[in-house]
Structures are given as structure tokens and as C-alpha cells.
Amino acid sequence: MKDSGDIILAKKIREFELKILREYKEGKLPGTIHCCIGQELDVVRLIKQLKKGDIITSNHRCHGHFLAYSENFDGLYKELHKQPSGVNQGRCLSQHIHQDDFYTTGVQGGLMPIACGMALAEKMKDSGNIVVCFIGDGTLGQGVLYESLNLASLLKLPILFVLENNQYSMSTSVKNNIAGCIRCRFEGFGLKECWFNFDEVLTRDNLPMFMIIDTYRYCGHSGNDDRCYRTQEEENEWIKKDKLGGYLLDEFLHQ
Predict the structure, then answer these.
(1) What residues have CB less than 8 Å from 123, skipping those under 6 apart?
(2) Which of 66, 83, 154, 184 is most buried, by CB atoms within 10 Å?
(3) CA 138 distance to own-chain centroid
(4) CATH of the domain at 174
(5) Quick one: which of 47, 71, 49, 48 has its CA closest to 58?
(6) What residues pair up with 210 in beta bridges, in sequence order?
(7) Which domain range does residue 124 map to?
(8) Are 30 and 94 in contact (CB under 8 A)?
(9) What pLDDT sits at residue 1?
(10) Helix, strand, or coil here: 132?
(11) What pLDDT shows up at residue 225?
């Protein structure tokens, strides 16, 4: 069966991430990087359902989000190499990318209240646009997350919070880091869960909402993380669930 456009783009993102991770380890990149190897396809499917004018806020693990949004591989590659022709003239490197309606920062949860402000502005303008705010499971430990959920619910903001649960906060498993029910944290503020077949429900009138993507980060937290806190057996089990069919993973994980 021929790959769909979403799968082709997700594979290109994985190829890009593996390339820059290799170049980082060879000392060819300034700064650090946080790759999303394993998390690509769900993000592509979500972002491709948005419309022009919708806003995306991301986090330190932003490459996949940015490439799914813009498909500007060349601009990001040059940015990561600190070249003036990069998407932000080589000034922002990996964690502070901006293009059109895409914004990101390396501060954990730092864009959540700003995303709420953006959503409030869109509501006041009656634009019909929404804000999609990506966070990771590690952000559940930030107080600003709960302030933002409260604000979004109280003001009925047109915002979708997307939690990518990749099983690890840096090197700490969610099993050792998060107590209780993750979904209950959102539901406690009156937010409803959104699923991937959200063509009919993802409208401004039904927001705010949240989405949880259960995924796995095959790479380390950052470029110099050797994943020594995980077992090969665990990684092999997750390869069986990989939504790109283990594309390029075997060589990467067992090199």
C-alpha cells in the first residue's frame, strides 16, 4: 500500500531528526537539540487538520511540530546550524523557533499563559481561529499549567491543549514522576477530551478542550543523552507499536 501524505511527511521528519542528531554528536551543531523521534505521525495528523490563521505554541521539543506546520526543512536546518538564512536568521537555534502563526520556547510551560492570551485575543476579534498548545508530560509539574487550565475554562477560550505523553520527563519515567490520573487534571477544570476524529467537535464553540497523545520518545531527552536509564527490552516493545512501522529505528537504537 502506498504511504499517505501524512506518513510521508512524518518519515521525512524522522529522517531530518536522525540527521541532525548525528551531526550534533559529530560536533557540527551549536547549542543542544531535543528530538521527537517516535512522536512524528500523530502530530502531523493533528496539525494538518488546522486551518490558516490557527495558532500553534510549542515547547523545547519543537522540530516535529514546526516541520508538520511549515514543511520548511531547509529553513530549520540552516537555523540549527546558526546560518543567517535560517528561519530566524540563525539567532534562535533549536528552542525558540517562530514562523507565521507558530511560536515556541524552551521554558517548561512558559507559553501556556501566553497561549491563553492569544486565544482570548482571537475570541475578542471573533476571528474563528483557535490556539493549539503543545506540552509534554513533564509540564504537569509546573504550577503555571493549572493556572492556564483554570483561565482557559473560566473564560471559555478557543484553545486545545495537547499533552504528548512520551513516557519520560528527561530521564525519569512517568511511573516514578506522576501520581494519580493525568486526564483528571484537565477534567478537574471542566475541560473535555478531544480525539483525532475531531472534524465536527473542534470548533471554537466547543473549546477549550484537551488531547492526550500516548507516544514514545526513542531518542534521549537531548542530544547528549545516551538513554542509559532504559532497557533494550522496553525500547523493542515500543518499536512494535511505532506508527511508522519501526522506520529507521533498528539501526538507530542498536548502533
Answers:
(1) 155, 156, 157, 158, 204
(2) 66
(3) 12
(4) 3.40.50.970
(5) 47
(6) 161, 193
(7) 5-253
(8) no
(9) 43
(10) strand
(11) 85
